[in-house]
Amino acid sequence: MSESEQARFETLYQLSQMIDQSEQVIKDFALEAGVQMTGSSVGYIFFMNEDETILTVHAWSKSVMETCEIPDPAICYPVDKMGLWGETVRQRQPIITNDYEQLDHWKHGYPVGHIPIKRHLNIPLIDNGKIVLVAGVGNKQTPYTDTDVQQLTLIMNGMWRLIQKKRTETALRESEARYRILVDNATDMISRHDPEGIYIYVSSLCRQLLGYEPEELIGHSAYDFFHPDDIEALRVAHMTVLDQPIVHLINCRVRRKDGSYLWMETTSKVLRDPETGVAKEIVAITRDISQRMQMQIEMEERLRFESFLADLSSQFINLPVKQIDIQIIHGLKSLVHFLDVDRATIFEFTRQQTEPYLSHSYAADGIVPFPSKISMDILDLYIEKLRNGEIIIMEQPESLSDPVWRERAVSLEEDIKSNLSVPLSVGGNVIGALGVTTYRTQYTWSDEIVQRVRLISEIFAHALTRKHAETQREYLLKQLQEQTEQIQRIMDTVPEGVILLETASDAAQDKWRIALVNPLGANDVAILAGVKVGETLTHLGGRPLSEFLTYPTKNLWHEIEVQNRVYQIIARPITTEGIFKSWVLVIRDLTWQRENQRRTQLQERLASVGQLAAGIAHDFNNIMSTIILYAQMTARSPSLSALDHERMTTISQQAHYATRLIAQILDFSRRAVLDRSALDLLPLLKEHIQILQRTLPENIDVKLVYGSENYTISGDPARLQQVFMNLAINARDAMPEGGLLCFELERFQITEMDAPPFPEMNPGDWIRISVSDNGTGIAPDALPHIFAPFFSTKLPGQGSGLGLAQVYGIIGVHEGYIDVNTRLGAGTTFILYLPALSLPVSPPLLLPTAELFLGHGEFVLVVEDNPTTQSALVEGLNSLNYQVLTAQNGQEALSLLESPPENAHIVLVLSDVVMPKMGGMALLRAMQERGYQTGVILLTGHPLKEELENLRSQSNTLLVDWLLKPISLEKLAAVVAQALK
User: Fold this and answer.
1) CA of residue 594 relative to chain centroid, distance
2) In this structure, what are the phi and psi dihedrals at residue 493, rounded to the nearest 5 degrees?
3) What is the dihedral sign for C-alpha 679, 683, 689, 694?
4) What is the DSSP letter of 672?
5) By percentage, how much of the chain surpasses pLDDT 90?
6) What is the C-alpha separation between 819 and 804, in angstroms, rounded?
7) CA distances (Å), origin 521, targets 467, 531, 551
8) Could you tell me which residues are beta bridge partners of residue 349?
9) How far apart are CA 825 and CA 778, in angstroms?
10) CB-based burial of residue 486 (10 Å sphere; 0-12 exposed, 13-18 middle, 19+ buried)?
11) Residue 50: CB partners within 8 Å, gap ≥ 6?
């Protein structure tokens, strides 16, 4: 070891032995040692402040103090104003200056009287990253080296460690002194325990807190003094403190010497061996928190009640009225559990307040429910007090001062332990009472509990008040709604538009706003003015509204026509204090009425024409029967020349053409006899379309539109084919340049509430057949006459004028209706309405081909008043090999039946229906009355199907058939032969 190292070791050793010396002595020793070991003549020690901005002199070497002549030298030096001394701080490293005079930087110079500096060494001492002091030496005879830096640094470091240790021991002694003062005067009990929890020290405060002398606890386990219910929490805290380096807090009850318990808050910290880390002891600080815990318990209870109250109150917010009773029961249940009582009950007073009634009750498990009916004799004293707003507290019946009341309380409930009754009051009006009762335990009704029950009662009272108010309001609202709905139903069913007009915002300009309107009125104003409810009405049908707002005395109905619709309008004012504030407009839509009038007039006109046509057809058929029979019989003559045969054929053809005209007249007059059955119109129209596609010009496209519905009706296919053909021919003539002919099938339903296309149409299922073309249309002046017989817009010779008349009649006899929509240049649509059937369609029966059947000489009686027709029938029957007797009327026929010629056995009677004296029907009834068994065939010029069917049912088997004139020879042969079978 070198001499310098040996000297440094001795110096450091001497320094370590100076622990009992003052800091200044230690600093002076260390500074002189540093000056000596570095061979310097002067030295100093500056201590640094916390933020390293100021250096303070703590020691000068003796040589400095002896030679320095600066008067009042400074003690503190700001680092930012220091030169060479401060540079070591700025650079945080030692600074060696071996030629101070040549130094041109860092040097600020020194004041007069300062020791001259030749050489200088300055070092910083850094502890935990901070400069704690700066030491410097100067004026060494030789240059300073790094060895000098090391020597000075080691000495200063040893000095600093010694000072730090000395300061720590001083602080510890002071702390221990203060600790003992604090322990002896602390308001908390301080104790120390071994790792097992045994007391090894207890402060004197245990006398005041627990009543024990400290010596009575030492040696005992802390577990011996804690409440049994808190032992587990203490064990967990104990293990936690031993296992983890934390301060643990626990609140437990500790037993006092008198046996009572205090709530104590204990903070525990474990002290460990610094080398092994093993727990040496546990330090606990314990304070009395009984008052705080009591306040906390009360606060928690208060918060629990406030939460209960808020929850109970919220359950009734926006609650539907129908659920209030159920929610009150839930509320009583919650109250029973919250207060830990046995039953909660609500009594309500009637409106007359003569007798209470039990409305809601809840009893805990095992408690008998409160009786639903209570005698007034028992409750009248309670009720009187409750109605006066008094709260009744009964902790046991025997405690009641009033003997009568006590007796009644006992009779009310023999096992009652306590009861609290609170009035249910809203706005000073008592509507009932809330009672809570105990049976199993005695209950003390503190002011706090009474106040809580009173607050709860207010919730129930408001809920019940709202329930009754809402119930009454709903009842009144229901009545109002029923009245409103009734008025609305009346308004909606009024067959006229009703509109309420109120003054608009700018009344000076006579503007009116639509306030109310019924459905028909809404539709009317939409058509007449294009406005709706809430908008301003200024005109109707292009005319100013003011024209319609007339005074009632004028009683004027205004008539306007808009979009081919006819309306009548009248206005009535509604006055308030003589001022017109609103108007009521009544609008009648006369469109259908006018249309129905037109249709009715047309039907009446057509019915008159039809009746006339039917009468003419009867006589005409008699004539045609004679012509046809003679023509057919003559044509069968073998001696007839070819020319005469051709002429007879022409006569027969023309007669048949005349017959078809008669048939058309009969169809128009609805006197034609139909062969009706269940008929599906779809296949019928499909077949008809195929025929039209082959027969109509190629420039006409025929189309059929239909859906998936059932299109079955009760109809005569031949007659309906005639309808479709007539309409197709008219459409063809209306489209000379070609176009589209469309047939459309649609099934629809008319209900009792619907407005049918025709007023006479009955509710039920209907089939709509639309036949449309895009031809020339029908002129307005011709439209009212299109269904009239013999009316035609075609050129002479191009039509008979019976086509649409026949369509009209055939649809009518099918109980149907026909309508037409047309516009010049845009086409025409005929709409046919026929009653629908839900029956399945039966396949058509194949009728046998007519044959000329001959007789076997049987006697047939012909009853006919027309001589020509009679002769034709006689000759026709003779040609068929029958023998014929004749009569002019029914009376003659009866005489022949009574007294026939010799060997003449009459097997069949052919009788005309219309004859003088006695017609065919009267003859049939007379024959039935007299018991004749001879069959009868009736002949008629116009069909009477219903009458004949009724007659057949009344005459049993006498009426075997009937023939419609004119009669062909083939039909006559077939019917007679069939009758004689």
Assistant:
1) 46
2) -95, -5
3) negative
4) P
5) 20
6) 12
7) 41, 11, 21
8) 356
9) 9
10) exposed
11) 130
> How many other C-beta atoms are found inside a 10 Å radius of the C-beta of residue 219?
9
Dihedral Cα 909, 912, 917, 921, nearest 10 deg: 70
Give whole-number Cα distances, 814 to 194, 702, 801, 810, 817, in Å.
120, 25, 22, 6, 9
Q: pLDDT digits over 593-610, tens only?
A: 776 666 666 666 655 665
Strands (E), 98-212: 120-127, 130-138, 189-193, 199-202
396: how many CB neighbours lie within 10 A of its CB? 15
| Radius of gyration, alpha carbons of the chain | 66
d(CA 673, CA 404): 103
Quote the tokens at residue 598. Answer: 């037109």
Per-residue DSSP letter, 198: B
Q: Which residue has the tokens 């009893």?
A: 363
Distance CA 199, CA 189 (A): 12
Place of tokens 């403190």: 241
Alpha helices in 38-109 (DSSP H): 62-67, 84-91
Q: How far apart are CA 683 and CA 397, in angstroms?
A: 97
How far is Cα 665 from Cα 671, in angstroms, rounded to an integer?
9
Q: 3-state class of 156 per DSSP?
A: helix
What is the spatial distance between Cα 792 and Cα 799, in angstroms, rounded to a whole number? 7
Provide the pLDDT confidence category of residue 797 given band limits of 50, 70 and 90. Answer: very low
Rounded-to-integer distance, Cα 470 and Cα 919, Å: 82
Mean pLDDT for 806-826 is 86
- Distance in angstroms (rounded) separating the CA atoms of residues 969 and 556: 69
How far is it, in rounded angstroms, from Cα 182 to Cα 795?
Answer: 139
- pLDDT band of residue 846 (cuts 50, 70, 90) is very low
Own/partner long-range contacts of 318-327 (Cβ < 8 Å, ≥24 apart): 319/463, 321/466, 321/467, 321/470, 321/471, 321/474, 324/463, 324/464, 324/466, 324/467, 325/359, 325/360, 325/467, 327/463
Query: Hey, is 944 helix, strand or coil?
Result: coil
3-state SS assignment for residue 248: strand
| Per-residue tokens: 887 | 């009569």
Q: Which two tokens stand for residue 290?
A: 């009984």
Q: What is the tens place of the pLDDT at every residue in 64-100?
A: 766 666 666 778 889 888 887 788 898 999 999 898 8
The separation between the first and the last C-alpha atoms of the chain, rounded to the nearest angstrom, is: 170
Q: Does 756 sit behind a cis peptide bond, omega within 30 degrees of 0 on the bond before it?
A: no
Rounded-to-integer distance, Cα 487 and Cα 494, Å: 10
| The amino acid at 611 | Q
What contacts 891, CB < 8 A, 6 or more positions away? Answer: 917, 918
pTM: 0.35
Q: Are strands 700-705 and 739-750 parallel, antiparallel or unpaired?
A: parallel
Q: Is the separation of the CB atoms in 513 and 502 below 8 Å?
A: yes
Q: Which long-range contacts (CB under 8 A, 24 or more apart) does 189-193 make?
A: 189/285, 189/286, 189/287, 190/283, 190/284, 190/285, 190/286, 191/217, 191/283, 191/284, 191/286, 192/281, 192/282, 192/283, 192/284, 193/222, 193/281, 193/282, 193/283, 193/284
| Token pair in block for residue 670 | 């609805």
Residue length of the chain: 981
Provide the H-helix boundaries in 566-590: none
Is the distance from CB of 935 to CB of 958 less than 8 angstroms? yes
> Taking the CB of residue 462, how many other CB atoms lie within 10 A of it?
15
